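Changelog note: in this version the structure field was regenerated for every chain. One regenerated record is shown below for reference.
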Amino acid sequence: MARVTLQKGFFTDREREILTHAGMTASLFRYDSGIEAVRIANGRGHLVVLPYMGQMVWDAVFDGVDLTMANMFDQPRPADVIVGTYGCFAFHSGLLANGCPSPQDTHPLHGEMPCAPMDGAALEAGEDADGPFLRLTGHREYVMGFGAHYMARPSVTLRPDRTLFDIALSVENLAGDPMDLMYMCHVNFAFAEGARIVQPAPFTPDATVVRTAVPGHVRPTPDYTALLAELERNPAAMEVLDEPRCYNPEQVFYIRGLRTGPDGLTRLMMRRREGDGFAIAYDPAVFPHTVRWVLCNADQKVAAFALPATCEPEGYLAEKRKGNVRSLPPGGRADFAVRLGYLTAAEAERTAALIQSL
């Protein structure tokens, strides 16, 4: 395997190719905002990843289809919290705390990891049992006096001529005490009006549970409150995204009892009117919670139809009361992996049949 350790001095305002492998390329550039970026591409499309900013995936385009939420940011901005640059395709949410903080919580929205400054990054080119790959890796040592100490290692892997790719994260507790762990792979797929969500669980009140608690950043109206009550009775009304006005303010669902295939993975898909779709697959034993977040207004349009997580997004204190805060022992390690991306119409047809057969 070939490995190139990246340095910030490699990044300039002019994009330049640094590595090729099996028909794939990696190129480096720096946005006008000063944020460094790596574009990894194959014959079908590309990903733009921010190697030193939480290693978030800023952009994803395959077969000419933009997978990323519509947003107000024309480029990533320097920020300490995710709302300061909320335009990315995916970010690592957590790790010591997660979700929307209550007034009693002390953590930032979605925790310390989304915009975390990474200690280093590297490109890897090689081949494994799944074929050739091009991978961006990184690492960050978090250490706080009288507090937590961990090592986080994210990665993004692309393969030749494929429109599905892998986002992974491993975290190791380096402290002498147990570590609280709350993680969500926060994937912000584009809102596709008229799309149908396909999931291996029924659209019933017990399996597709509407969040009725209203977070602090949402200002409910009487119509919104009435809609929540209706969705609590009939969540199937949101199986097809044909009423954009219903997602302003946002709607959040908890998907429970997801069935898995012989490989142990669950799969969900959002199938567009064009017949193609967006897809995601993961192990629900590793991600015991799945959250759906849909928002459609004049400034942001997002259909995060499956957010794999170890917890729900109500903030540390609420999740602690529910028993959803995982404890990682000293020296313990947790590994997370998600496969996601774009499907052609033919692939989406096969995936829909597979999901419905589970």
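Spot check on this record: Helices lie at 222-233, 316-322, 345-357. The first helix runs from residue 222 to 233.
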